[in-house]
Specification:
Number of domains: 1
Shape: rod-shaped
Radius of gyration: 23 Å
Strand content: under 5%
Distance between the termini: 21 Å
Order of helices and strands: HH
Number of helices: 2
Length: about 100
């Protein structure tokens, strides 16, 4: 019985290695996309800030432009936030599978 249990655990660990590799590659891809998106959001936020200041100076009464800029900033934040959630979820899954493979 102990030998069978040992063989099943060993088989599970061997079968989980490709899953761990796929999770690691997906995590790396998502991490790269989130980092690049973070830099792009920073640049876009700076541009939106300058546009907001320009709108404030030249078009003081046109509130629709302020609302449009705020919605654009909110959408960019939501996309970056969703990417960060996916990155953290993949990192957690990768760590859990790695612990199962190592036997902890």
């Amino acid at each position: 019985m102990r030998v069978l249990l040992f063989v099943l655990k060993l088989l599970l660990r061997i079968l989980l290695v490709p899953v761990w590799i796929i999770l690691a590659l997906a995590w790396l891809a998502v991490m790269a996309i989130v980092r690049i998106g973070c830099m792009a959001k920073g640049l876009a936020s700076s541009v939106l800030l300058f546009i907001l200041i320009g709108t404030l100076i030249w078009f003081r009464t046109d509130w629709m432009r302020y609302i449009l800029l705020a919605i654009t900033e909110g959408i960019m934040f939501a996309i970056l936030f969703a990417g960060a959630i996916v990155e953290v979820t993949l990192a957690g899954a990768r760590a859990k599978v790695g612990r199962i493979i190592c036997g902890f």
